[in-house]
Amino acid sequence: MNPSDIQHGAATLAQEVAILPRSRRKRPRWITSLFQAKVPLFGIAMLCFLVAAAVLAPNLAPHDPIAVSLADRLKPPFFAGGTMTFPLGTDGLGQDILSRIIYGARISLLIGFTVITISGIIGITLGVIAGYAGGIVDDVIMRIADIQLAFPAIILYIAVMAVIGPGLRNIIIVMGIVGWVAYARIERGQVLQLRDQDFIMAARSVGVPSLRIVLRHILPNAWSPIIVVTSFSLASTIITESSLSFLGLGVPPSVPTWGAMLASGRDYLRQAWWLATLPGLAIALTVLAINLIGDWLRDYLDPRLRL
After folding, report:
1. According to the model, what pLDDT value does residue 118 have?
2. Whether this model's pTM surpasses 0.85
3. Residue 90, strand partner residues
4. Are 170 and 111 in contact (CB under 8 A)?
5. How far apart are CA 216 and CA 198, in angstroms?
6. Phi and psi for 179 in degrees, rounded to 5?
């Protein structure tokens, strides 16, 4: 065959590939999985909406969330006979419910993401140390975890918060430190499965330092269950923060949070049902959105469910 014909054919093939419609190009597997599942799209959209509302709270909130107006107290939502001045009504102090829900998303998401970051760093570090070192180090770390698991988490939170006092910083520190156990146990199990694999033994045999083995070979292969646990821990953290605020052990009453709004609304359940119902609905939708994402991550990252 003439070389010029070969060059002409290669050029023609390159042009045909370049003009292939985008629909025929292969999409990333996670995008395909996400659109096939469909349900997690609702969770992602809801979570993005909440994050955007929290970030843009000063621009979205129609009123000051802590401004008191006794003349406007217990106004019903617009769909229950109220006006659009207070779209979701007001509480017993005349504070706008919609504004407080928007600003409450800031506190809930801030606490949630900060707590799982602290817990994840502590838990993953201790889990890797326990699983890779083994021996007495593993026994000590796991016995500490067992002792902590012997106490119900909410009782432990209440006891510690009652001693050190409520506050945003205190609740983040306490929940971040207490929540490390789940990460440590799961990461330890993953490390125990990986440390005796052939590629780890080969790295040891050629003198690769343990820290490099952990960072380059073990952690990248142990992320899947951690990501799933993180998504569910975020939902659990939001519920726990709301529970502590409901009991008066969370952030100060002047700071709008969903849990504190629930607590203030329990005295008006008969005459002003919206005080507790609307923040409770915000909590439920947030947790539902996070759980839907967590379910999809579990199915997507578990290789046994891809078969």
Report:
1. 92
2. no
3. 96
4. no
5. 15
6. -85, 10
